[in-house]
Design brief:
Blueprint (H helix, E strand, L loop, with lengths): L4 E9 L5 E6 L2 E4 L1 E3 L2 H11 L7 E8 L2 E9 L9 E4 L1 H5 L8 H8 L37 H7 L2 H10 L10 E4 L3 E5 L7 H16 L5 E3 L7 H9 L3 E2 L22 H4 L5 E3 L7 H9 L12 H15 L3 E5 L5 H10 L5 E4 L2 H12 L3 H10 L10 H4 L3 E5 L5 H23 L15 H14 L5 E5 L5 H14 L3 E4 L5 E3 L2 E6 L10 E5 L9 E7 L5 H12 L10 H12 L1
Parallel strand pairs: 1-6, 9-21, 10-11, 10-12, 13-14, 13-15, 16-17, 16-21
Antiparallel strand pairs: 1-4, 2-3, 2-7, 5-6, 8-9, 18-19, 19-20
Amino acid sequence: MTISAQAFVILAFNANNQLAVRRDGTRLDLAFVNSNASDAAAKLATVFPTHTPPTEYFTCEIEAVRHQVCFTQTPAQPSAPDISFLTLEQLALQPCDQLTPALAAVLTRLEPHLIEIPYLHLGENDYIYKFRVERDRNHDIYQQDAAARALYQSRLCEAIKTLARTNERSATRPARLDFGAVNYIIPSHFGFCLGVKNAIERAYETLAENPGRRVFMLSELIHNPFVNEDLLRRGLRFLQTDKGQPFGPDGNLAAASAPTLWDTLTSEDIVIIPAFGATDEDKKRLVRKGIRVAQYDATCMLVEKVWKAARAFGREGYTVVIHGKSEHEETKATFSNSRRHAPSIIIRNLSEARLLGDYMAAPTEAKRAALLARFAGLHTPGLDPSRDLDRIAVVNQTTLLMNETAAIIDYFKSVFVSKYGETDGPAHVGGAGKKDTLCYATQVNQDALQRALAEPLDAAFIIGGKNSSNTYQLYRLCEQKLGSRAFFIQSEANIRSRSEIEHYVFAAASHGAGGHTEMHALWPDENTPKRVLITGGASCPDGLVQQVVARINSFYPAAQLHDIDTVLAGLAALRT
């Protein structure tokens, strides 16, 4: 076919990701199209004076005319009566004779670009949801009623952070709380990170600002059951579980082929994306339904930093190796994002890294087949080990142990140095082997815990949700030092008595038994003074830490305990 002319198309989307279309008699047509780019832009400016600069996304041939298609985003309503916004889902349901051939053809080519539409107002180096500085934090949401105060507020934790946390990014010596019968060792850094605070404040603010509207969370806001339950109590609903299983309209898990909450969504609904981020597939579903995405995207900046690193590595020709748990929401989102920019593969640990390294060092067809079978479903379609594993770059799930990611990077460097020599080998690992996609908040919590573990201890309690990856890493550090005297709990309710602790065993440590609870003993029924470490994962509210202290103290006669004001006075004296 001979291309005889060229047309310029500008697709204008609003913040709800709805497309502006023009009514042409009985049919819908492209709103802004012209044989001259300037005339198309002028027409756009007439209808939408405020808009982002049109950016080209693709070209297509329609009836022997090459169409150059640009996207723009506008906050305005159309000033022309024949132009209106419709969702992509609404347009997809239109009968063929209701759409002009040009509009129909352009719509069929939108799919690869849907993920870009919500973020047209952002530059590629901008972050979706920046951390709020302390003066901009919404502290009121943590004390809006008695339930919120009990969950989020703690005089002890506030005093500890004031004393010990001199720098958000640097661990210092732990705080010691002398209650007499029990001394508590609390790391300088524990509990909520900035990404979690951002997400929690976004969720509570959204509920307060939108009375009468349905507000959903894509999945759990954070991996803490008490925070999630408090949000549910206030009207928030989850669309799916942390494993992607959809809920039905009745709030229960939807059976196969049964209606889901996803099916009921309209452009009037609000869906918050949690701090872990979301897969491209889930975001595209929201875009098609005309639901605002960017405004309610609470993806943590440090997760997005990993995505940006993967994109940069892809542009440099590296295959991205993601160190993470394939079932975790964050790793799913990172893989979904990375695959747009580079061949990608997920590995869980150093053992799996060695499987890749064995092939890299001495590739054979048998090893290639075995590798693809072993990592089926964990790599991008079409990944060819013989081509794609010669230059790799490692990014990670932000909640893992830094030394494990560092060991994987160092291992890959050693493989390529052995293969290509000291001069050329290191260049086969992207980023010069830097570990800069590790989350500083996860790392500083681990550093602070290591300093606390250097103290003599009788027991350690690690508080967090059963599906909290970063809390599991904290527990692992404690278990390595204290063995059976380290207890993973969700709240003070798991401390039933001195002889009965409901200790949660993570699936990864259960030797095939799956995640489950075991009854462990704390210590004998005697009153010798104890030294107890308490810490919480990045999704643990301060109130839970204080409630655990109160629960352990309840095992001792009041006469053997100092009151909280005395303990706080002792902390204050350390600051003078």
